[in-house]
Amino acid sequence: MEINNEPVDRVNSLTSERLKCLREQVDWKFQQERHELLDQLFPLIENWFDQCAIFLDIFQRPEIHQLLLDCINHWDSHRRDGRVSRFVAFIIHTGLEDEAEVDEEGNPLLRRTTALHAASRRINSYESPAQNFVVSKLFVIYNKYNLNYVDELGMSHFHVACVAGLEDVLGNFLAVHGWQRLDRPCGAARDSPLHLAVGSVTGWSNKATVRLLLEAGASPNVANAKGSTPLHVIGRGVLNRGRGKHSVEMIFELCRHEHRPVRIDALDECGSTPLHRAMCRGNQRAVELLLRYGANPNTAQRINRMTALHMIELGSRRWRRERQPLLEMIFRLSHDEFRPLQVNARDLAYETPLHTAIINDNDKAVELLLRNGADPNLADKEGCTALHLCTLYRDNARLAEMIFQLSDRKYPVQVDARDNSNETPLHKALYRGCTGVTESLLTRGADPNLANGKGDKALHIICRRDNAELLESFFEINARMNRPVQVDVRDRLNRTPMQIAVSNLMPRVVDVLMNQVRLESRFGIQFDHILEPEPHETGYFKLRLASGALDVVDQIRKRNYDLDLRNALMIMKFFDKHQLFEKSNANVWHDDEGFARRTKEIAMNPSLSLYDLIQLQPEEAAKRVSIQDYYELACSTKLNKLLKAHKEACALNLCEKMSRRFFLAWGVQSFWELTHYRLPILCCEMIIENLANEDLYNICLANDLKDKKNKKMNTSKYNLRDKGKKKMDTSITVEFFRD
Fold first, then answer.
1. pTM attached to this predicted model
2. Can you list the positions of beta strands (E) in 291-430?
3. Distance between CA 647 and CA 143 in Å, rounded?
4. Could you give the 3-state DSSP secondary structure of residue 122?
5. Residue 68 resides in a domain
6. Alpha helices, H only, 504-540
7. H or E segment and range at residue 84
8. Closest to 154 (Cα-Cα) out of 194, 112, 199, 99
């Protein structure tokens, strides 16, 4: 029975005609047209393997080689349809084999870029598994091992086989050429064949490849353009790949067998040894073998003078869990000739491995270094000891305690050591608000009364931070240790801690200080510090000024101190100086729906929202909301929910409500005095109760002016202010007295 092949022949004929048509439409000089041809060819050749020989009749060999090169660069080898590998397989089925071009004398032209070169450049990328397969298949086409093509970058087909780890191909090249002719550096990097083999990420066959190259005569001591030997390349390898271990073992075992020395501590252009490189990359297996074979862990890098112990902390944070085993390896595996290890070696910045471990917040490394003799009292270039560095990134009280517990026997810790800025560890801890480290230092004997280079003592530093909890802890610990604290000591600007806290408007800190300071029957405070808004306070900074000032006054008055009119007027001048009075036309935002919705989401206290507070009259608001509530709102970021156009107007409205009782009380008193006490005090209150705070301030100014005139004093300083000008006091001092 005869089989009718007519339909198949017809399909083949149609495909052949289509291929010819596509080829004729391409200008081979233009890459884009060649790429478009590839995209159109793939569907046609997909099911045409049985008749693929016709492809050679339609396309010329140089054109096919160009298509092979283009398919590597154009199609991603990791595509799900595997276009590159399937196209290469199709070309192999055509029976194509490479034939060299020759010069006039008949010698082959070996300077040529092939698809093998293009594929090899992708092996060390994310496409490596697919490209390694493609490279192995391409050697079926480029199977003339006497033709070792070299591209424009200096990479030969032999180099490609080293990168891909193709043992059979390498053996064929060596059989034809011999090692002496093939031992040529690759490209500008000047990598030897052994560099390429140990540096490739294709790890499954490189053990055999490395053995083959070493047995052929490859030297493990040859350096590339950067001074790196193959051992440096292995050390820089990807974290913990097994190939690194096999390569190191192979190099040392074969060279030992053949009595060939290996420069295990060779320095590259940066002055790093292979051990340094392996440490930086967290390559445990390479580190282990390098140490076992005699790498010197005390060798310092030429540029920054770091040893292997320093290098552990230079790796990426994603290798943090690998650091502890590496450190243990150094102490466990280092040869006797390098012991004791230089655990206190200094780098160019005078940092020891202990400093580096603390800076990188590696508690486990710190513990291991301390147990092995690290000195915590050594200072770096900035004069910082281990204790100075404990607060660098966080409040690490555990680290501070570890230093005290593990070092006191061999190296008694200098708890009050000073750095180049004349600061002790306690000063550093307080600057950063580290309560835990502060407690540890004070418990271990830190002196709370020492001054730094700026003349600041511990209390001065604390009182510049709005951290009442830290201040309470400071006093409590010193009391427990029976250590007196100088609470009235002055800084270089002649200010006490109380004056600093007041001028910075920190009522909680003032409250704590009032429990410790013995105040005179009459004393003054100054609101003369120039405060700047925090980045998040844009639009409502004035609320913090007003609430802070009134809260500070409130904290002092709770201790049975009071004000007279002149000093109450100083507080009013503070409001005037910082423009804390509400504008008469500032309430247009009340009816905004968006404002109402947002303020309802902001809680002043458990029973009252900001929206509800704004609706209240000042008298009712004073009953339901304390000055402390206003201050806590100002110090939070809750008001950032409001639109920029509403923030300041809302803040000034709250300032008006909050200070209303203060201004009204003094306004009534001043108005009563201005009337020479002719009206009952209740009538005076009824007359002025609807005036704004700014108007009440003017009444107080007028009364003060009258008093000064009566006493025949110079009144030019107290003239009623011009409405077009703002009175700016350089110093606002408020005096309190106790009856």
1. 0.77
2. none
3. 78
4. coil
5. no
6. 507-514
7. helix 83-93
8. 112
176 burial level (CB within 10 Å; 0-12, 13-18, 19+):
middle
Q: Which two tokens stand for residue 595?
A: 């404002």
Query: Which pair of structure tokens corresponds to residue 668?
Result: 């009534």
Judge contact between 700 and 659, C-beta under 8 A: no
The domain that holds 315 is classified in CATH as: 1.25.40.20
Q: Is 627 left (phi over 0), alpha (psi -120 to 50) or beta?
A: alpha
Q: Which of 289, 314, 342 is the last residue of a domain?
A: 342
Residue by residue, DSSP assigns 623-650 as HH--HHHHHHHHHSSGGGGS-HHHHHHH
| Beta-ladder partners of 524 | 735
What CA–CA distance (Å, rounded) separates 428 from 613? 42
E-strand ranges in 265-391 read none
**Residue 262 is assigned to a structural domain of this protein:** yes
Q: Considering the domain boundaries, does residue 619 fall inside one?
A: yes
One-letter-per-residue 3-state SS of 655-676: HHHHHHHHHHHHHHHHHHHHCC
The span from the CA of 562 to the CA of 568, in Å, is 10
Nearest by Cα to 502 from 543, 540, 555: 555
Q: What residues pair up with 191 in beta bridges, in sequence order? A: 186
CA of 292: how far to CAs of 222, 284, 288, 445, 719, in Å?
22, 12, 6, 45, 89
Which two tokens mark 489? 């000591």
Please give the tally of structural domains in the chain. Answer: 2
Structure tokens at 88: 């290469």
List for the chain the helix, strand, coil content (%; round to 5).
Answer: 55, 5, 40
Domain membership of residue 429 (yes or no) is no
Residue type, 435: T
DSSP 639: G
Contact 264, 294 (CB under 8 A): yes
Tokens of 27: 């200008």
List b or e across 65-101, with b for residues whose CB sees 16 or more CB atoms inside 10 angstroms: bbbbbbbbebbebeeeebbbbbbbebbebbebebeee
Residues facing residue 209 across a β-bridge = none
Domain boundary among 283, 311, 342: 342
User: Helix or strand or coil: residue 472?
Assistant: helix
**Structural domain of residue 556, as residue ranges?**
535-737
Long-range contacts for 670-676 (Cβ within 8 Å, ≥24 apart)?
670/565, 670/699, 670/700, 670/702, 670/703, 670/704, 671/699, 671/703, 673/703, 673/706, 674/699, 674/702, 674/703, 674/706
DSSP secondary structure code for residue 2 in this structure: -
Distance of CA 51 to the CA centre of its chain: 60
Region of residue 522 (phi > 0: left; psi between -120 and 50: alpha; otherwise: beta): beta
Chain center to CA of 455:
33
Please name every residue paired with 735 in a beta bridge, in sequence order, or none if there are none: 524
pLDDT along the chain (739 residues), means of 10: 44 69 89 90 73 81 91 70 83 87 87 91 61 86 94 95 92 94 93 90 66 92 95 74 65 84 93 91 86 92 91 62 78 85 93 92 89 94 94 88 87 94 95 93 95 93 90 94 91 88 90 82 63 65 90 85 81 89 69 85 90 90 92 88 85 92 92 90 90 93 80 44 39 60
Report the Cα–Cα distance between both ends of the chain, in Å, rounded: 131
Element (H, E) at 182: helix 179-182
Inter-residue contact 380 to 355 (CB < 8 Å):
yes
Q: Please give the Cα distance from 375 to 412 (Å, whole number).
A: 9
For position 426, what pLDDT does the model report? 96
Contact 418, 381 (CB under 8 A): no
Burial of 175 by CB count in 10 Å (0-12 exposed, 13-18 middle, 19+ buried)?
exposed
Q: How high is the pLDDT of residue 306?
A: 93
